[in-house]
Specification:
Layout: E1 8-10, H1 13-25, E2 33-37, H2 43-51, E3 56-58, H3 59-62, E4 87-91, H4 102-117
Parallel strand pairs: 2-3
Antiparallel strand pairs: 1-4, 2-4
């Protein structure tokens, strides 16, 4: 669920639910992150994301005149098949929140994930 550039990747309903719970638990306001949907996303991803309270941006919208690169993920690490229909959470760099970088967001997510599993 964590990509190579520290984006939180969501492609199943449980991923959306867990990320939403983490963002709510740590009270991270929506203006500090964006949720970007892949161009290949199917209608089900849009529905799951919206039902989880996420406002989606397309890759073109998020790219600010260019193309926003989403981290990739594989369902099975032993195959070359990537998940095409996905969303990512990308933190907006800021100096006002206690979560200022994608490194900090990933650490919060890891702590929340482990705590949530116990």
């Amino acid at each position: 669920m964590v990509g190579s550039s520290r984006q939180l990747i969501m492609w199943e309903e449980r991923h959306f639910r867990l990320v939403r719970q983490m963002l709510d638990y740590f009270a991270i306001p929506p203006n500090l992150y964006r949720v970007v949907v892949s161009n290949q996303a199917d209608p089900e991803i849009y529905s799951i994301a919206e039902n989880s309270g996420f406002h989606l941006q397309s890759q073109n919208e998020a790219g600010a005149g260019g193309y926003f690169q989403l981290d990739s993920v594989r369902r099975d690490p032993n195959t070359k098949h990537h998940v095409e229909s996905r969303c990512v959470v990308s933190l907006q760099k800021n100096s006002v929140s206690f979560v200022r970088t994608s490194y900090e967001l990933v650490m919060l997510f890891a702590v929340f994930f482990v705590w949530n599993q116990s």
